[in-house]
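note to self — DONT lose this again. spent like an hour looking for the file last time. sequence + predicted structure for the chain T wanted, 146 res
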Amino acid sequence: SLSGQKPMIKITLALVIIMLVVGMTSNICSTLTFSHAHIRNVGCGYYLLVLSIANQITLSVFFCRFIYLLISQTTIISNQQFLNITCVLFDFLLQLSISFCDWLSTCIACERTVSVIKGIKFDKSLSVRTAKRIIPTLFITIVSTL
């Protein structure tokens, strides 16, 4: 049982729960902020909206994986195939979401660099169209390379 676990496991569980609560609050606020249309008049707005959603997914997958590991260690799950499949699935989803978040952050940095270099000649509508094409392409590329 959880009460019989070592103090380090209990401390880790508490930290993961704190991370979940603080992260969920932050990601929900970010999603609400970047969902406004006037914020998404440039491509960075779309990248930031998708990034806040992807961060929430990453946090959820991390929490589920921790709970899964805790349950698999505290109870006897006899189905070895189930354990193998879920372990691989959680690893894949966590790697996917972390890579996707990293690449979205890179896209934000690139777009901001381009906007500074171009100055007033920066085309906002082109930026939005490019972001709408890059986001799904990026996701498909990451899934296929993992």
